[in-house]
Design a protein that fits this description.
globular; about 550 residues; GMP Synthetase, Chain A, domain 3; alpha/beta
């Protein structure tokens, strides 16, 4: 590894891949796992009593894929999935991948306005829908012509010219839709046609259309192929290392990039993925970690906080845990250390994005424990990634200088669908992706995430990074979670406001927090305001909504005046 060979003076590092790429597809990998582990559990949904083996899962995938062929789904056509975490979602995903369709992974939190736009942007032909997972948004009102059309025939309409059919997961699907369960019960496998189609699908075919927050309020559609998704996961994992793993998906919608391991690992490595019910419950999470003997899981920072602070934590046996991944926003070093001590396993602050795929940086892949101890709260790029830290002009900065992270990688997204302007803003002609994240790199190539470029606060001409303040305030004994936002100000441009959720709703004052800051934060960075809230607002993808939090803070401060 480069960090062991020489010290860097410029903020650039390339961690080469130790393996060759494979030109296979999602379906090719599933076939291998079925052959190796036919009677092993592939996917488990304990809350609803569903446990399915690799053999049985493939049988259901093939039935649904055959139905897609009957509905004239061609390679490159779009099959959308609009549902929560369930087995039907996974069957639909693998079936669409098998016939070469692009899978539009719609999030259950999308509004009618967003869905109406995205159905057209993606040119969605078939939509696998679970109306019970988005009860406030009625698909049949968005596509009002649906009930009057013959099932499986293109709709004669101007608003959705590509749209053809709804496959409804719920039993009480409306007229004009096909029944998911009826397809599985009465359908059949067209083996010859299915094999022929699978052989036509290649690794460079588009697989997933993910959706990420857009500055206009509409999500951007992020395009990934079989190649980018398969090899991003294979770069840091092997079938030998992972085949015995039992992975729990605890806090991500299946449509979100954070679920990629739970979706792909069974096919890629023969692991077992276990899923929590959609409605969050800390008790359900901890009970399932224990009862299912989970070895790896991904917990959002707020869920991680809930686990280690649970009043009955010591009553649960979590000794099977080997690795806990977290991320989504910066986690203070103090919380990471507390979590490792409480859980007795390695807790990984796993950095990535929808465009770069989860896990661009990690603390565990290809580095020694000595190096991790040497650089706490820092991360090294995972194999296959090339990174540099640049100034506002795109020039590489010297080490230990804060700048924007740029990434060049075979795992990068292709483009934003139907948005060339947005693509050109973040991808250069020579393949670099401008992440919008602020980092600093040390002499050995280890990087520390400082925050988002857009989150940097400028007060009286001084650059203030929220993470510096958040890391310090997280050490306060009454603080459970903390975020720092900017408040507009005519005199100094922006004011610094700390937003806090206290532990167990303890009473805490602004004076206590500001006093705690002195000596722990640069004197020129001391915050102006402190507010206390019960929860932080989230986006439709369940991420922290920092812009909305800033509005909440501004309203609270204005009401005090």
């Amino acid at each position: 590894m480069e960090s062991k060979m020489s010290s860097f003076t410029q903020s650039y590092v390339h961690n080469p891949l130790p393996l060759r790429f494979a030109g296979d597809t999602i379906s090719d990998n599933l076939d291998q796992s079925v052959e190796m582990f036919p009677d092993k559990e592939a996917f488990v949904f304990p809350a609803v009593g569903v446990r399915i083996t690799f053999r049985n899962f493939k049988q259901q995938v093939d039935i649904m894929a055959s139905k897609f062929l009957q509905l004239a789904v061609e390679i490159g056509d779009c099959v959308g999935i609009w549902a929560g975490t369930c087995l039907e979602w996974l069957i639909s995903f693998y079936a669409a991948a098998k016939v070469g369709a692009r899978v539009a992974q719609f999030q259950v939190g999308f509004t009618s306005q967003i869905m109406e736009r995205l159905l057209n942007v993606t040119k969605c032909k078939i939509l696998v829908n679970s109306k019970g997972d988005h009860p406030s948004v009625d698909l049949y009102e968005i596509i009002s012509e649906l009930e009057s059309c013959e099932v499986g025939t293109p709709h004669v309409q101007t608003r959705f010219p590509s749209f053809q059919t709804v496959i409804e997961m719920d039993e009480d699907g409306k007229q004009g839709s096909l029944s998911f369960q009826q397809i599985l019960t009465t359908g059949y496998v067209s083996e010859k046609e299915l094999q022929a189609r699978q052989h036509q699908v290649c690794s460079d075919n588009i697989l997933s259309l993910y959706f990420t927050s857009g500055s206009t309020g509409f999500p951007k559609c992020v395009v990934h192929t079989h190649h980018t998704q398969i090899n991003s996961q294979r770069a840091s994992n092997t079938r030998e290392k992972c085949s015995k793993a039992r992975e729990l998906l605890a806090s991500s919608d299946l449509a979100h990039i954070g679920a990629i391991r739970a979706i792909l690992f069974p096919g890629l490595f023969g692991t077992t993925s276990i899923f929590l019910p959609p409605k969050y419950s800390i008790e359900n999470t901890m009970r399932m970690l224990q009862d299912e003997c989970i070895t790896r899981t991904r917990l959002r920072p707020n869920v991680l906080f809930d686990v280690i602070n649970h009043p009955h934590f010591n009553e649960y046996n979590l000794q099977s845990l080997e690795t806990v991944f977290t991320g989504g926003y910066l986690v203070p070093e103090s919380i990471m250390k507390l979590a490792e001590s409480a859980l007795g396993c390695h807790v990984v602050d796993d950095y990535g994005s929808t465009e770069m795929i989860d896990g661009l940086f990690s603390e565990v892949y290809g580095v020694s424990s000595e190096e991790m101890l040497k650089y706490p709260n820092c991360m090294y790029p995972t194999p296959g990634n090339e990174i540099k830290v640049v100034d506002a002009g795109g020039n590489i900065v010297t080490v230990n200088t804060i700048g924007e992270l740029w990434v060049r990688s075979p795992f990068l997204f292709l483009y934003y669908l139907d948005d060339k302007e947005a693509t050109n803003k973040v991808k250069t002609s020579d393949g670099w992706f401008k992440s919008g994240d602020l980092v600093s790199m040390n002499e050995d190539g280890w990087c520390k995430i400082v925050g988002r470029l857009n989150d940097m606060i400028i007060r009286e001409g001084i650059n203030i990074y929220p993470s510096e303040i958040e890391m310090a305030i997280a050490l306060h004994p009454k603080v459970s979670q903390v975020q720092v936002v900017a408040i507009p100000d005519e005199k100094v441009h922006q004011r610094v406001c700390i937003c806090i959720i206290t532990k167990n709703s303890q009473v805490c004052t602004e004076e206590e927090i500001l006093k705690f800051c002195h000596g722990r934060i640069h004197a020129a960075h001391i915050p102006d305001h402190v507010i206390f809230v019960k929860e932080f607002p989230k986006t439709f993808s369940n991420k922290l909504d920092r812009r909305q939090l800033a509005k909440v803070a501004e309203e609270k401060l204005f009401s005090k005046k």
